[in-house]
Amino acid sequence: AFGQSGANSSSQTVAYIGLGDASSVDSLVVEWPSGAVSRPTNLSINSLSELSEPTTVPPVFEKLISGGISATAVTGYSASWGDYDADGDDDIYITVYNGNNLLYRNNGDGTFSSVTTGSIVTETSNSFASVWGDYDNDGWLDLFIANINQSNWLYHNDGGTFTRITT
User: Fold this and answer.
1) Upper half-sphere CA count for residue 150 (Cβ side, 13 Å)
2) Residue pLDDT, tens place only, 10-46
3) pTM score, two decimals?
4) Which of 122, 123, 127, 124 has the alpha carbon at shortest distance from 96?
5) What are phi and psi of 10, to 5 degrees?
6) Which of the two ends of the chain, N or C, has the fewest CB atoms closer than 10 A to its terminal CB?
7) Pair 109, 64: CB distance under 8 Å
8) Closest C-alpha to 119, from 157, 76, 162
9) CA angle at residue 72 from 70 to 78, to 5 degrees?
10) Cα–Cα dist 133/148, whole Å
11) CA distance between the termini of the chain
């Protein structure tokens, strides 16, 4: 195989394949730089077969349906990870613009449970960022939420439940 390039042109690779006495090629596997794979079959000999890299690239992440974090019709601005319930597993908090923020508790087995009670998930907000930190050094992660066009919020973690201490 060899490539060809020049000014105002793209690189084109041509491969010459010696088949010996074979009269056809059953299949050919081409792995492109993007990771995409082409598998043309039943190729005739003494002919030119042109292949183009597929325009869709295989996904980097696998979509998990059964993990407990479901797709929602919200504008999520950010996600922050922290072990709010001190069970050794990082939980995830998702800030939402013009809606209720989302908290998912890590069950420790690769799944998550949606937390639906408490002011950190029931107060409508225009949130765009959050950060976990233990501001009072009591061993429980507290949560600071930055909002757009409204006051920012600081929530004190009372051992797995939260109390908003700013207005």
Assistant:
1) 14
2) 445 556 666 667 777 777 888 777 777 888 888 877 7
3) 0.60
4) 127
5) -110, 165
6) C
7) no
8) 162
9) 95
10) 21
11) 68
